[in-house]
Predict the structure.
Amino acid sequence: MNKTPRLLLALDVLAAAGMLTTIGLVFLYAPIERVMGAVQKVFYFHVASAWIGMVGFLVAAAVGVLYLLRRKPILDVAGHAAVEIGLVFSVIAVLAGMTWARPVWNTWWTWDPRLTTAAIMVLVYAAYLILRSGIDDPEQRARFAAVYAIVGAVSVPLTFFSIRLFRTIHPVLFGGDTSSSLSDFSTDPRMVLTFFVSLAAFSLLFVAIFWHRIRLGQLADRVEELKLNREEQQ
Amino acid sequence: MSTPDTFFYFYLGFSVVLGAMILYVISLFLRWRHLKQEERHLSEPKD
Amino acid sequence: MSSFTRTLFAITWKDLAAEWRSREILSATLVFSILVIFIYNFALDLEVTLQSDLAAGILWITFVFTGTLGLNRSMAMEKDRGGLDGLLLAPVDRSAIFFGKMVANLVIMWVVAVIVVPIFSLLYSIDLIQPGVGLVILLGSVGYTEVGTLLAAMAVQARTRDMLLPILLFPVALPLLVAAVKATAAFLAPSVVNSVAPWLDLLIAYDVIFLVVAWLVFDFVVEE
């Protein structure tokens, strides 16, 4: 269990290649958008990160359901991994969104439905991790974490709809609707290509990191067990 | 209307994204190394 | 009446009877909610006549914080007395236990609402005693106690039990809060712009969805 499996190494290389390709496309190939200028290119990273953030949630919930049904420890490790990675990418998405908002609407924050929902996803993710840290019994911890992952995942679409409804009835006066700024998007094929490449690269990266993180979690569990054995012997 | 120069924010956003990802991957690596050390230490026969 | 329903009401009755004897939760949550209303007045330097949007917001923040207190206490008392273990030994449907506790929590929330809403109306010269507002409080409190009871059952097992419930509950209850506040405001100041229907739909959707989720998942929470 020590050597990194070759498939994973290959995946790592692919993921790195994907990211480099994306960066290359964003810097050199994608055109500069007329209205907002260069900062619009943050969009390629922002959306892909947010997408991975959501994927993390879905995976955590799915794995949570499986855990409750099957009780395999690897499913708990996978759930924890998915949440941690989802948290990182959601935070990245929020930060990227903020650097986008600043020059375009002269504010670091806008209560846009997607940005707000991403921030709330961060809070739910963080709550999951805090829940895990508060329960000592591993079996109970795994069960509760699975339950909360499910509850959290169900709440996210509801949160999105509620905030979007909030925004359509109360249009933001000072900021702007982020979707309206993508007018060039559907017409320029270079933008579309870069966008899909970034989405694919981030997805690949997620799988690679997810696998690594699961291995890390399993190692942590093994160390935990060794510690308990030590204590019992003493 | 000319296209505004927002390169600074693009570089800022990009650095944040890339920087955060790299930091996370490094953290994974460091945690792995630390746990490996602990595993080795705990697997040694008790003296 | 099926055994499920009988169990449900038996548990609700047990909880409410216990609460009636001590009135611990009721008095604490009542005092707390009035304190919150007062604090908001001074923190926000509110005028005597409150605008409907602001009133709706403050009312629901009060309910949310007070509700958390009640949920926490109710579960903690159950756990500390070992009542839950006894219930679990009994040959009853686990989800009946969940719904029993949920209804008890709901009743306590309503009792608080019935007392707090008139006081709020009095202090801020805004008439909250309307059927529309009552409906929103009904729907909102149902959703809140559904998720709250489920999460409280988990939170109470943790070391950090007091802080954990709000941390778990608030992000997940957000759509409920948004819908409840907007619906209340829309009832208080009806206009073409402020339509109530989509918010009521959202509230009902939330209530139904989480009823199903909680019912499916509660067994796993109280497993031994």
User: Anything to note?
Assistant: The two ends of chain C are 29 Å apart (CA to CA). The CA atoms of residues 91 and 189 of chain C lie 51 Å apart. The mean pLDDT of chain C is 87.
